[in-house]
Amino acid sequence: MSNMVWNGCDVVELASRFGTPLYVMSENEIRSRMRRLKDCMAKGNDNTQVLYAGKAFLTMAMCRMVQSEGLGLDVVSPGELHTALKAGFPAERIYFHGNNKTEEDLAMALDCGVGRYVVDSEDEMVLLGEMARSRGKVASVLFRLAPGVSGDTHRYIQTAHTDCKFGMPLLGQGLRRCVSAAMADSGLDLLGFHFHVGSQLMENRAYLEALEVLGDLMVTLRDEVGFEVRELNVGGGIGISHGQGPEVDVEAYLGGILERAKGVCEARSLALPRLVIEPGRWIVGPAGVTLYSVGTVKEIPGIRTYVSVDGGMADNPRPSLYGAVYRCELANRMDEEADSVVTVAGRCCESGDILIKDVSLPKPKRNDIIAVMDTGAYNFSMASGYNRLRRPAVVLIKDGQARCIVQRQSFDDLVQGEVIPEDLV
């Protein structure tokens, strides 16, 4: 029998050493993908910036890699902001997103000197301006817009249609009013706009449509209120194939966006603003593998064989939430032919806790190691404590070396912070 080897590491040995479930992340792959994105953007325009969308996967070690590769960081919560600051990430390279930032959130960001605020509503704009002025500061702002474009993806991760919780709609006079108010507010420096058309997009069509919409808007605002856009953030959302087809040609994908942005501005006699992208999944998704140990194998004659593993929707809720499709390997028997079709089931008390349906594998047995591929994005970051399952460890591998960057939760960790009142019988 032969074991899966990845980045010089025997993953079965990793499972034995660190336990399962186990998130394994490739440092080489993460860094390589960040560099490709920077190269792509620099070829099309020297006034560009690549951010990493921290919501996909964020730890202090990940922040350190993002920093050393020269990317900025997109955060969406005070917890993500704290993680970045704790890792020593420069606050001025952080973009603070979120559709419902609290006063406490904004105070934290203002006090640490966050570089950009992606403002989601008129209410937030007014609050941020007041808080910045009271501190004698000026907040650099992008308005998040809902350009009325739908990406080709699951409806739960479409984020730019008009009826959406994110962003300022382009309907009516509301946006013009906000732009004028921001220009007059001494606590705000409105640099431009942000949009995010959706996640897991295998084509750039929706970006190109949104750029045309934004081009017309930029002309209107220039002519009516004298506002010139200096920065345009086109969001993230670049998809990965999960083995279901060809991977995105990221050079062509981003090249098309850069070319369209340039064309939109030239056709309307607009100055080309600084262009920003903020991918997450594309950087870390293929850089992650989750290792599970096989437990019960249940055969229902003529119907299905369930192979239960020691994790599931608590460490990867995406199949249950979105019907996300993953691929897997039997990591300790890589040289064997697939001779069975099985369904990989999680251990949570939910019938919907199914990780992968009807996958061809060598017939699994107890204590085999299943490696689920491309789990680097939205697995660790979306993990829960459902059924009081402990969050897995995260291991970062590079050139045959493995380092733990997040420790596995202990049972005591599960009850940390809980209190039994003295008068409770």
UniProtKB/TrEMBL annotation:
One of the record's GO molecular function terms: pyridoxal phosphate binding
Residue numbers carrying N6-(pyridoxal phosphate)lysine: K55
Annotated residues for binding of substrate: R281, R318, Y322, E350, Y378
Family: Belongs to the Orn/Lys/Arg decarboxylase class-II family. LysA subfamily.
BP GO terms, sorted: lysine biosynthetic process via diaminopimelate
Protein name: Diaminopimelate decarboxylase
Active site: C349
PANTHER family: DIAMINOPIMELATE DECARBOXYLASE, GROUP IV DECARBOXYLASE
Organism of origin: Dethiosulfovibrio salsuginis
Subunit structure: Homodimer.
Function: Specifically catalyzes the decarboxylation of meso-diaminopimelate (meso-DAP) to L-lysine.
Binding site for pyridoxal 5'-phosphate: G237, E278, P279, G280, R281, Y378
Keyword terms of this UniProt record: Amino-acid biosynthesis, Decarboxylase, Lyase, Lysine biosynthesis, Pyridoxal phosphate
Domain Orn/DAP/Arg decarboxylase 2 N-terminal: 28-284
EC number of the protein: 4.1.1.20
Needed co-factor(s): pyridoxal 5'-phosphate
Enzyme class: lyase
